[in-house]
Design brief:
The complex is a heterodimer of chains A (277) and B (283).
Chain A lengths: L1 H31 L24 H31 L3 H16 L2 H15 L6 H25 L3 H9 L4 H30 L2 H4 L21 H9 L5 H35 L1
Chain B lengths: L1 H35 L9 E2 L4 E2 L2 H32 L5 H13 L2 H20 L7 H26 L2 H9 L4 H30 L2 H7 L19 H8 L8 H25 L9
Antiparallel strand pairs in B: 1-2
Helix pairs in contact in B: 1-10, 2-5, 2-7, 2-9, 3-5, 4-8, 5-7, 5-8, 6-7, 7-10, 8-9, 9-10
The chains are: A mainly alpha (277), B mainly alpha (283).
Chain lengths: 277, 283
């Protein structure tokens, strides 16, 4: 009897964890879908309405450019760091590295944004730009990506490594011929998750990379861009303008779809790996 | 050779990034602490135009928001973890994980939008508020946002409990809830503890969603438990004012100092969460 009661109570407590995400998703679809018209994905910067009537293609491109650029910046460093950890670092420096990475992973993205604002936007004089935003996002994603990559390399069976080393293979040959074939899938999974994660960040690019209007196509690394995230942020505060609110919901739906797409790719890659595992 | 230089480059470059980051934090906020000392941390007036920078309203606001969030998300997330690991059969695990993934995948700004569209009107109508912007709204939104962290990490903690404990508990004749409360939860406790600490850190640093619903008014709740009035958190203050502050002004360095305080709090939580845990002796 007591067991049944405890279980029922726990299930009741756990219900929001299932109901809330489904409700959020449904509501998002309900509010976002009506806004999908032919105009939505145009690059046309409408004459009227300050963002409420124009298409959001520029924002989509800006968001994707920021997050893909940042991941491409962070990936080589993450691989380099994780190879250092697996090839050269002793147990002591490995544990130091682990601590530094987890600590930096916990620092709020907003603070990275402040750092980017001070260092790249003002100190180096890049202004509010794609480059500044991408580097800030790269700094945010670097600890996560590195930890993921180290984890991926750790999952290569140590027998393989030992055998390869015993055969006299140099470290670079071990990396290329033994680790790469076993680990590339996890590495890609980590990369796609990183893209999804950077797509969801708003605070750090608010002051470093984006402007509300006037930017359409990032024609230079040092030009400001617009992004879906900040577009939603600005439109959300225009509660009086119904068009603006409708645009905000459509943009939110597009953003969530993009994030879901990258997460799904990561998930599929991960699943294939564990099947062949 | 190529490999070696690449690795060396990555390590040096990353160290440089760490140094830049730490250097920035200290050098940008140091002027503020040199000018004003440490007293702003406990003073309650924040009026940039009169050069008054008291951190207390934002600190209290952040603390309240995260307390509300934990009070809701901790029982709910823990229950979800227990239900998914200990009650439901294997084939439903995918569904729960999917829901948690959805929750974790929704960007912060979309939560803000949902908060404005659903939460604020609801609070406004039911509690008879002026606009609904309040610490309670921020806390509720944060609760949803930290729920995935708590659930996932608690699930891991429960899964890490060795099966021999479950078997031993059953063979001792403990029933389901005795097994849960006197064997599994104590064993998983270190993991659950660090889950809550990490979720706290995550919630303290959450910016955009909180900014959109908290109201951004620098006031300590009056009386102290009044959660229904607009207030301010550290992150919402930085987010609101950073765009307006002019470079190098005292407001600028005050905001940087807020960033430093926030970073130190979150770092401390992370260190506590990852501190080597005392494991109960393994069988």
């Amino acid at each position: 009897m007591a067991n049944r009661f405890t279980q029922a109570l726990l299930i009741a407590l756990a219900l929001p964890a299932i109901a809330v995400p489904l409700a959020c998703l449904l509501y998002l679809l309900m509010r976002g879908l009506p806004g999908f018209d032919s105009n939505l994905f145009s690059l046309n910067l409408g004459e009227s309405g300050f963002g409420s009537s124009q298409g959001i293609m520029a924002q989509v491109i800006g968001s994707l450019a920021l997050s893909i650029l940042s991941c491409l910046l962070a990936l080589p460093l993450a691989i380099g760091l994780s190879l250092y950890s697996r090839l050269y670092a002793g147990p002591r420096s490995n544990s130091v590295m682990q601590h530094v990475l987890t600590t930096f992973q916990s620092i709020p993205p907003l603070v990275y944004g402040l750092c980017g604002l001070v260092v790249f936007v003002h100190l180096l004089g890049w202004g509010i730009s794609l480059a500044a935003g991408a580097i800030v996002l790269a700094m945010i994603i670097l600890p996560v990506l590195t930890l993921n990559t180290i984890h991926a390399l750790e999952r290569v069976p140590s027998d393989y490594t030992d055998a390869a080393r015993a055969l006299g293979m140099s470290p670079s040959r071990v990396v290329w011929h033994v680790w790469r074939p076993r680990a590339w899938r996890s590495l890609l999974t980590g990369l796609f998750l990183a893209v999804a994660r950077t797509l969801s960040e708003t605070a750090p690019i608010l002051f470093t990379a984006t402007v509300f209007s006037g930017a359409s196509w990032p024609n230079s690394l040092f030009a400001p861009v617009t992004s879906l995230q900040t577009h939603i942020f600005y439109l959300a505060q225009e509660a009086v303008d119904e068009n603006a609110v409708a645009r905000a919901w459509s943009s939110a739906l597009v953003l969530v779809t993009l994030v879901a797409m990258f997460s799904l790719i990561a998930h599929l890659l991960n699943r294939r790996r564990s099947h062949h595992g | 050779m190529l490999l070696r230089s690449w690795i060396t480059f990555s390590v040096i470059f990353s160290l440089a990034l760490v140094l830049i980051f730490v250097g920035f934090l200290v050098s940008a906020s140091l002027p503020f602490f040199l000018d004003y000392g440490l007293s702003p941390i406990v003073s309650s007036e924040w009026y940039p135009y009169e050069d008054l920078y008291g951190f207390l309203p934002a600190l209290v606001g952040s603390a309240w928001a995260i307390v509300i969030a934990l009070a809701i998300a901790l029982p709910c997330g823990l229950a979800a973890a227990i239900v998914s690991v200990e009650i439901l059969p294997q084939r439903y695990h995918g569904l729960i994980n999917l829901c948690i993934d959805i929750l974790a995948g929704i960007p912060s700004v979309v939560y803000g939008l949902l908060g404005i569209a659903l939460l604020l009107p609801w609070l406004k109508n039911n509690l008879d508020l002026l606009s609904g912007h309040s610490l309670l709204a921020a806390g509720l939104l944060l609760a949803v946002m930290i729920l995935p962290t708590i659930t996932r990490l608690s699930q891991d903690a429960l899964r890490d409990v060795d099966n021999s404990y479950r078997e031993a508990a059953s063979s001792l004749g403990l029933d389901w809830s005795q097994r849960l409360f006197s064997v599994l939860l104590p064993q998983a406790w270190p993991g659950i503890r660090s889950a809550s600490l990490l979720a706290t850190g995550r919630g303290l640093g959450e910016t955009i969603a909180v900014m959109l619903v908290v109201g951004s008014i620098d006031r300590i709740p009056e009386p102290w438990y009044n959660l229904l009035a607009p207030a301010q958190t550290i992150t919402s203050r930085i987010g609101r004012e950073m765009g307006e502050a002019s470079v190098g002004s005292s407001q600028w360095s005050a905001l940087m100092a807020c960033g430093l305080v926030l970073t130190l709090c979150v770092m401390l939580l992370s260190i506590l969460a990852h501190a080597p845990r005392k494991r109960l002796a393994r069988g």
